[in-house]
Amino acid sequence: VPNVARIYKQDNRLWIVVGDENYGEGSSREHAALEPRHLGGCAIVVKNFARIHETNLKKQGMLPLTFANPSDYDLIQSGDSISIRGLSDFAPGKPLTIEVAKRETPSKTHSISVNHSFNSDQIKWFQAGSALNQMKKSMQNS
Predict the structure, then answer these.
(1) How many whole angstroms separate alpha carbon 121 and alpha carbon 53?
(2) Which of 9, 57, 76, 122 is the Cys-Cys partner for 64 at CB 3.0 to 4.6 Å?
């Protein structure tokens, strides 16, 4: 992922990670959340997250999402284009949708429902670009 992500960053292309079970489990959880953000990633869509990693991604301004139907994981292949729908109405408990355009047939898309666990404060982190950015904004407005 890091090598491809560097190329995408140079080309100013946003990218996402699509992962399987217990994504983010391991000892370097903070760096695992920092790197995707640093390299221009915007979202991680998985079957489920390691609990602490999901929170760390939120703090970094990333969008951790889980498949509403875990078998939808199999519908996405490397090279597919993905658009995230519903962010203008981003709210706690309100699912989002990803639109997938297959690499082979980009004119044909299909929708996949995804969930998030953001609360209202965490949504502010995402909208500000990170928890630190939101803290800075709050301090400037005080």
Answers:
(1) 18
(2) 57
- 128, 137 in Cβ contact below 8 A? yes
Domains of the chain and any CATH numbers: 2-140 (3.20.19.10)
Q: Confidence class of residue 1 from pLDDT cuts 50, 70 and 90?
A: confident
Confidence class for position 32, pLDDT limits 50, 70, 90:
confident
Give the distance, in angstroms, between the CA of residue 9 and the centroid of all CA atoms in the same chain: 16
- Is the model's pTM score more than 0.85? yes
H-run or E-run covering 41: strand 41-46
Angstrom distances, CA of residue 90 to CA of 7, 11, 48, 69, 126: 29, 28, 20, 20, 10
pLDDT single digits (tens) 43-80 = 999 999 998 999 999 999 999 999 999 999 999 999 99
Decide if 92 contacts 121 (C-beta within 8 A). no
Helix (H), strand (E) counts: the chain: 5, 6
